[in-house]
Design goal:
The protein is mainly alpha-helical. The protein is built from seven helices and two strands.
Length: 163
């Protein structure tokens, strides 16, 4: 084994703590949330306006149904956008969302390799479990590799990027 390979294998990973990960998530929330909010606002105004929701008259059942269907479609668009953003970005060559990239973090498997789209997808859905009373996030303070519940479920770690 050459010296360069030996050094690579012995390189110690620096695991990312709660606060820097929270900052990355906040940045992602701004990056994804502002455009989605603008789309949501405009579409809501169009849907409600088209259904006559801004008039003083009571809405008919069909108008109310149209508003509900429109809101469900907007929810699905948001859900799909967020799911694709996090899953695709975590499995990309960056191994990070834009927020993580900005603060110098990346997501890897336990061996330091890039994760697949489906592992990133599963990790995202495990984040919902982490969000229950935030216990899954708080766990990161007590695990050796600073893993939250969703990291433990997905077999991933968040490390400080070297580049």
């Amino acid at each position: 084994m050459e010296f360069a390979e030996l050094t690579k294998h012995e390189e110690k990973k620096e695991y990312a703590g709660f606060w820097i990960r929270a900052a990355a998530y906040l940045i992602d929330g701004i990056i994804v949330g502002i455009p989605l909010y603008a789309i949501y606002f405009v579409c809501t105004m169009v849907i409600v306006g088209a259904a006559g929701g801004f008039s003083d008259e009571a809405l008919s059942d069909s108008d109310s149904a149209a508003i509900i269907i429109g809101m469900i479609i907007l929810f699905l668009i948001t859900f799909i956008t967020v799911t694709l953003y996090f899953s695709w970005m975590h499995s990309s060559k960056w191994q990070a969302t834009l927020g993580k990239k900005i603060v110098g973090l990346k997501v890897t498997d336990l061996q330091g390799n890039r994760i697949s789209f489906w592992r990133a997808f599963g990790r995202l859905f495990a984040m919902y479990l982490s969000g229950i009373f935030y216990i899954g996030y708080i766990m990161a303070a007590f695990t050796e590799k600073k893993q939250s519940l969703h990291d433990l479920i997905a077999g991933t770690v968040v490390v400080k990027s070297r580049n």
